[in-house]
Amino acid sequence: MPFSNFAFGRFEEATHPSTFKCFLAEFISTLIFVFAGEGSVLAFAKLTSNGDLTPAGLAAVAICHGLALFVAVSIAANISGGHVNPAVTFGLFVGGNITFVKGVVYWIAQLLGATIACLLLLLVTNGATTSPHALASGEPVYGAIILEIVITFGLVYTVYATAVDPRSKGNVGILAPLAIGLIVAANILFAGAFDGGSMNPARSFGPALVSLDFTNHWVYWVGPLLGGAIAGIVYEGLILCPPTHEPLPGVEC
């Protein structure tokens, strides 16, 4: 089971040169993703004079996030694994695919990358205020938490199925980043109307910190982390399970 695979790691791991390369890859990838994603939100606000988000605007924001994440995961996949998301890192930790020590390094890189991206947006847009994720009018907090759990589960499950599962290793170069970008775009198209569709605590943290607006910010940590953890438990515990019977042709367990 996943819980038996927990590994704390050694403190020396945090200062190892390979870990620094992973830190840099996660930092740059998260910066690129958040810069483009949050930038698309600011661009829509500018083009509509801060008007309400329309269906067309939501579609544009979702596509931008999907494309940016496709690129961000692709450029980091061979270095750090291309997590670009604390929830993904946590889900992989639960599944025993990364140590706690290295996971903390990834989290720092991701949160720092998201923050720097939003500071750069503040600079290049002449002070345009970043837009932290927020609950839509009438959306209950519990509903947003459940929504974030479900959509993040879908994201991290996709990561496991396309990038972590050893049976899919040959497809990591193209299929995994594309699938991950597509599931994020699809989730934003739906969840964006209710709570913004975060799935990524770093994506929510950067704009919240720069704008100093942490209203309901905890929702975008609790929901994604729970969703990522559940995906790790399900995939490692039920899909990548130890063999208990003779596998069917073409099916290994």
UniProtKB/TrEMBL annotation:
It holds the Pfam family MIP. Keywords: Membrane, Repeat, Transmembrane, Transmembrane helix, Transport. The keyword Transport applies. GO terms for molecular function: water channel activity. It is a multi-pass membrane protein. It is found in: Endomembrane system. SUPFAM superfamilies: Aquaporin-like (SSF81338). CDD domains: MIP. Its main location: membrane. Belongs to the MIP/aquaporin (TC 1.A.8) family. TIP (TC 1.A.8.10) subfamily. This is Uncharacterized protein.
